[in-house]
Amino acid sequence: MTFHLFIPIVSPLIGAALAVLLHRQWVVVRALTLISVLINLGYGLWLMSVVPQSGPLVAQASGWLAPFGISLVADGMSALMVMLAALLMLTTVVYSFYSVDREREAHFYYPLLLLLLLGVSGAFLTGDLFNLYVWFEVLLVASFGLITLGGSREQLEGGLKYVVLNLLGSTAFLFGCGLMYGFAGTLNMAHIAERMATLADPGLQTVLAGVFLFAFGSKAAIVPLFFWLPSSYHTPPVAVTAIFSGLMTKVGVYSLYRVFGLLLQNELAIYAPWITLIAGLTMVIGVLGAVAQMNVRRILSFHIISQIGYSVMGLGLASAAGLAAGLVFTAHVMIVKMALFFIGGAAEQINGTGDLKKMGGLARREPLLALFWFLGILSLAGIPPLSGFIGKLILLQVGVSQQAYLITAVAAGTSILTFFSMLKIWNEVFWKKSYEDVNRLPRVRFGLLAPGAALVILSVALGLVAGPLVEYNTIAGQQLFDRAAYITAVCGADGCEAVYRAAVK
Amino acid sequence: MLNAVPLPAVLTLAAALFCIGLFGALSRRNLIGVLMGVELMLNAVNINLVAFWRYFEARYITGQTFAIFIIAVAAAEAAVGLAMVIAVYRHYVTVQADEIDRLRG
User: Fold this and answer.
1) Within a domain: residue B104?
2) Which of A112, A179, A469, B74 pairs with A207 at a CA distance of 20 to 30 A?
């Protein structure tokens, strides 16, 4: 039994509980937050070093056998996501130390961040569809708190859209769970995967896949379900926007990968053309949406949507190689997107506004900030030798090798549009002369620069040393697509059905 | 007893309730009405789960367990949702969704 799989769930849970209890001592709260995030990060790194060799690790809660109890499963994709979630949370926490006001800190800002990490880690590790729903709710309730904390008019208005549309998405997910339970008689992922092979009702399976595509698609902000994202993401503090951009939509992508890669593999083949179409539309509409915007974080928000298109493209390619390529890209974009939010946010805090027309002159005033921003946008656009190049190259290679020429062309073309759109921020914020005296602006503090800079440096490093990342994700993609190995890991060599039958007798 | 009410009848009830909830959530302007619509949808799923449990898996209590969890989660959601409605009301002195948008800037 590998009970250590509970560590990334228990550590933020205890951290959050203690932080609520001791919320008057802000030093203690900060230390607690930092410690639990570091524990998760260390554990995630260790998991990533173990899982490629050992195959999926499984923990059964309280020792209940798999189809009956609650299973936690860590395969390559889960381990990568748990590690990335902790890493991104670490940078967010550091950025928050320097940017979030005392008022918010006193009103449980850090416990909410930890609860968000709890929900995200739980969602990545669970081996049960119903538990996935519960973890979604945990992270959503935490995010509801984070997005409205402070309660300004703008935040309430954005938060309202965010809450209502996410609740509808969750309900659709739950509806899918109910149907799946009626169809397969179980919600344990391994057990569902096993029964899917024997249950022959293609019509119902297609409906189920459609419901899940809608539910997770609305979380991942694919076309046409993305409207909640750009209307709410620019309202909370920069640190909150950044962590949302890194984690929230990616949990939706993860769930799409998990459900279509493991549970509904047969349906993936049927849906693949549609998923690819959605991916292409998401890329293009996201990037075109950014053109009309004149606010740093609004532009970046639209780009989240555009990048989600690439991740979904990996799913649309419907093969282990496609999923692996999608994973590499998702890992890259989580890092770079957050870096850009941090740096753009720092520029916003210096200028006191996120309106492009009122900003300017920062290249001369803050050369380091400008340098890292430029490296970041190069990486996002996919210029070698940065990580974005590797992520896009592998996706395009798989696309060409599977004769998916149209989506490959769209993906390549979108990169150029992305770069143009990012150059707009570069020109307005950093390059053009400021209308007012830049010397009067406050200097950027180290704590605002460091998180974004660290993530950009990581992106450069991943681009230069791409071999291990690609190898890891190739294994992760194969593990994700390998139903038999997953079932064996969770339920034993005879499968879940055997355990189930033995218990029924 | 089990055959007195066939499964399709129960599922139809759940589907109807889900549609009523969805219609309410999408069409109501009053925020509390929207939240109530979402609650109706959750309850429709509960009916589904319990029905599937009763007709397919009556030896185990999985379906009921799911339903109890959903009730707990729905309560948490309602708490957060209503807290937000109160915050909105304090700011805008209305809970009509369209007026909240119109009062902007």
Assistant:
1) no
2) B74
Beta carbons of A181 and B63 less than 8 Å apart: yes
Instruction: Determine, yes or no, domain membership for B1.
Output: no
In terms of DSSP H, where are the helices of A317-464? 320-351, 362-365, 367-381, 387-401, 405-425, 446-464
Domain residue spans in chain A? Answer: 264-464
How many separate domains does chain B show?
1
Q: Which residue of B has its CA nearest to A138?
A: B73
Q: Do B62 and A137 touch (CB under 8 A)?
A: no
Low-confidence ranges of chain A (pLDDT < 70): 1
Backbone φ and ψ of A201, nearest 5°: -145, 75
Give the chain B residue whose CA is nearest to the CA of A68.
Answer: B62
ipTM of predicted complex? 0.89
Q: Do A160 and B97 touch (CB under 8 A)?
A: yes
Q: Please answer yes or no on whether A177 and B25 come within 8 Å at the CB atom.
A: no
Q: What pLDDT is stored for residue B102 in this prediction?
A: 54
Please compute the mean of the pLDDT values over residues B65-73 and round it to a whole number. 92
Q: Which amino acid is at A425?
A: I
State the residue range of the domain holding B84.
Answer: 7-93
**pLDDT of residue B2 exceeding 60:** no
B39 belongs to a structural domain: yes
- The residue among A70, A138, A161, A181 with the most chain B CBs within 10 A of its CB, best to mutate, is A181
- The residue count of chain A comes to 505
Q: Which alpha helices (DSSP H) does A185-295 contain, by range?
A: 189-198, 202-220, 228-232, 238-258, 265-291
User: What residues contact residue A49 under an 8 Å CB cut-off, 6+ apart?
Assistant: none
Per DSSP, the residues of A452-495 read: HHHHHHHHHHHHHTHHHHHHHHHHHHHHHH-HHHHHHHHH-TT-
pLDDT score, position A73 = 94
pLDDT at A238: 92
B104:A164 CB<8 A: no
Write the DSSP assignment of B23-86 as a string of letters: HHHHH--BHHHHHHHHHHHHHHHHHHHHHHHHHH-TTS-HHHHHHHHHHHHHHHHHHHHHHHHH
In a domain, B83, yes or no: yes
- Of B93 and A437, the structure prediction assigns the larger pLDDT to B93
Burial readout B1-20 (b: 16 or more C-beta within 10 A, e: otherwise): eeeeeeeeebbeebeebbee
User: Which chain A positions have a beta carbon within 8 Å of B70's beta carbon?
Assistant: 174
* Cross-chain Cβ contact B48/A171 below 8 Å: no
Give the global pTM.
0.94
Q: What CATH number should be reported for the domain holding residue B70? A: 1.10.287.3510
pLDDT at B105 over 50: no
Q: What is the pLDDT of residue A103?
A: 86
Residues of B engaging A, defined by a Cβ cutoff of 8 Å: 18, 21-22, 25, 31, 34, 38, 41-42, 44-45, 48-49, 51-53, 56-57, 59-60, 62-63, 66, 69-70, 73, 76-77, 80-81, 84, 87-88, 91-92, 97, 100-101, 104
